[in-house]
Amino acid sequence: MLWLLRRIGVSLVLVWVVATIVFMALHLVPGDPAELLLSSGGVAPDPAAVEELRDRLGLNRPILSQYASFLEGLAQGDLGTSLVDDYPVAQEIALRLPRTLEIILAGTILSVVVAMPAGIFAALNRGGVFDKVASWVAAVLLAIPVFVVGTLLVLILAQQLRVMPAGGYVPLLQNPTQHFVLLSLPALAIAKGLAAVVYRMTRASVLDALSRDYVRTARAKGLTPMRVLLRHVVRNAMNPVLTVLGLQMGALLGGTVLVEYVFNWPGLSTPLLRAVEGRDYPMVVGIVLTISALFLLLNLVMELLYAALDPRIRNA
């Protein structure tokens, strides 16, 4: 329990550090945010309007006062109001975040289901035909950018073969079948690179575990090959795989923008791009902080999984 509380405490401190960095970066950007927001076509904005907006954003207050209000809002779950459409940032994120997490989760499940068994089988048959072909396919998948894969999927499956829709979104409760059909292509595009990484790490970790003394000892005791594989090889090989999986999933939190754009999936990418173009600072800050917090939460979950697989980690 103490180990868990320590990890949670570290995660909370890191969230505070990230929030502070984002706040400082916002105030270190050259120029007056109020003037930038009101500028249009190179025409200087009305000074009275600029002053009104500065007062609305709290930019006239001392920096420490702004920082204190910023942290107080975060503690209450208040991320501010969008400057573009005057809509609460937290509500916009709450609406769109589950859709982004859905394609990440679907892509991760698909990659794990395919890549982990493939990596184990390739390691057990090192140098065989399957090992060579799978390793070659993984290298090719890693070399192809995700937006290229997404474009090819739309071109081939949607436009040429006409077996899948090109993109869009339907709520799950409205039409479950259509929802999962529309989800499949974005999930497949995300899964291609993740599956290649998981495959290569699984293969390498299993090969390393197979050469360990504890595996030879287990075999000498007369344990069945399946028990040796599951209890001594796979279990000890999973920690490096989970590390890579956690890092890759964290990267996907900020890397699904192109996938959502290609497939017209209404996740976080749409408000993020709109906020960047419209200089909607509260929306940008809210989305960045949300992604950062989720990345830290994901790392905490991975550490809990490490501890479940290897109890020695709890004493580290």
TrEMBL record:
It comes from the Bacteria. PROSITE patterns: ABC_TM1. Residues 97-306 form the ABC transmembrane type-1 domain. Keywords: Cell membrane, Membrane, Transmembrane, Transmembrane helix, Transport. It is found in: Cell membrane. It is a multi-pass membrane protein. InterPro entries: BPD_transp_1_N, MetI-like, MetI-like_sf. The chain crosses the membrane at residues 12-29, 103-124, 136-158, 178-199, 241-263, 283-309. Belongs to the binding-protein-dependent transport system permease family. This is ABC transporter permease.
